[in-house]
């Protein structure tokens, strides 16, 4: 008797966990310089430079495209739902562009503030969108979990970034970047579920089916 297939989500996050553990181990036990090259911003000459930033930006770009597809595909949906999906696509695209092109660092310099506060402001904006338009209570539990875990991962990233000096004894860089990549992966999982619902021609993607 054949065993049941392993869910794609379990494979994704299992692989991500192994990858993140490898990054942290490189910084903690082998070479902080190599970890810095892998987790740095996308601005360098060597092979695999900014590997992690490329991965997280790719996941966010993918999530933005999936949500844009979900907003435009399928049957008629309430304006509130369509607005939420388009705004989420825009937010995810902006986060991906920020990760790839160092936008929040530039904004922080121009405003004369720590760039962690720019990221925190983006998080507040996302909470406003979720509270005002998402109607999370009517969505399946796996969709709500994806959003909660993504928010928790990005919160960990912001806290590590803001407390960098106090965490100097830890492999701070890889912990911060691993949290960012986990957050991006959870956002991709959320977008994937919404897009699948739209592809199935659900008139209200992401919501639980009516009995």
Total tally of structural domains: 1
The major β-sheet equals: none
- Mean pLDDT comes to 75
Order of helices and strands: HHHHHHHH
Number of helices: 8
Unreliable stretches covering 5 or more consecutive residues: none
Strand content: under 5%
Morphology call: globular
Write a structural description.
With 211 residues, the chain is mainly alpha-helical. The protein has one domain (8-199). The protein is 73% helix and 0% strand. The protein is built from eight helices and no strands. The chain has helices at 8-30, 32-39, 51-72, 79-101, 103-111, 115-134, 141-162, 172-199. Helix 3 packs antiparallel against helix 4 (79-101), helix 3 (51-72) runs parallel beside helix 8 and helix 6 (115-134) packs antiparallel against helix 7. The longest helix has 28 residues, at 172-199. The two termini are 33 Å apart. The model has no long low-confidence stretch (mean pLDDT 75).
Q: TL;DR?
A:
This protein has helices at 8-30, 32-39, 51-72, 79-101, 103-111, 115-134, 141-162, 172-199. The protein is mostly helical.
Task: List descriptors.
0% strand, mainly alpha, 211 residues
SSE diagram, text form:
Elements: H1 8-30, H2 32-39, H3 51-72, H4 79-101, H5 103-111, H6 115-134, H7 141-162, H8 172-199
Helix pairs in contact: 1-2, 1-8, 3-4, 3-8, 4-6, 5-6, 6-7, 7-8
């Amino acid at each position: 008797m054949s065993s049941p297939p392993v869910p794609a989500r379990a494979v994704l996050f299992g692989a991500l966990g192994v990858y993140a553990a490898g990054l942290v181990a490189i910084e903690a036990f082998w070479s902080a310089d190599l970890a810095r090259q892998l987790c740095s911003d996308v601005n360098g000459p060597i092979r695999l430079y900014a590997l992690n930033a490329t991965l997280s930006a790719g996941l966010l770009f993918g999530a933005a495209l999936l949500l844009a597809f979900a907003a435009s595909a399928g049957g008629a949906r309430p304006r509130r739902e369509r607005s939420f999906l388009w705004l989420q696509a825009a937010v995810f695209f902006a986060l991906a562009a920020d990760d790839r092109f160092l936008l929040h660092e530039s904004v922080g310099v121009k405003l004369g503030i720590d760039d962690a506060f720019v990221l925190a402001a983006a998080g507040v904006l996302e909470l406003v969108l979720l509270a005002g338009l998402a109607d999370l209570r009517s969505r399946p539990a796996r969709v709500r979990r994806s959003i909660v875990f993504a928010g928790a991962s990005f919160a960990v990233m912001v806290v590590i970034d803001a407390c960098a000096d106090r965490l100097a004894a830890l492999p701070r860089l890889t912990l911060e970047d691993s949290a960012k990549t986990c957050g991006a992966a959870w956002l991709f999982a959320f977008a994937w579920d919404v897009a699948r619902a739209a592809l199935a021609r659900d008139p209200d993607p992401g919501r639980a089916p009516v009995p």
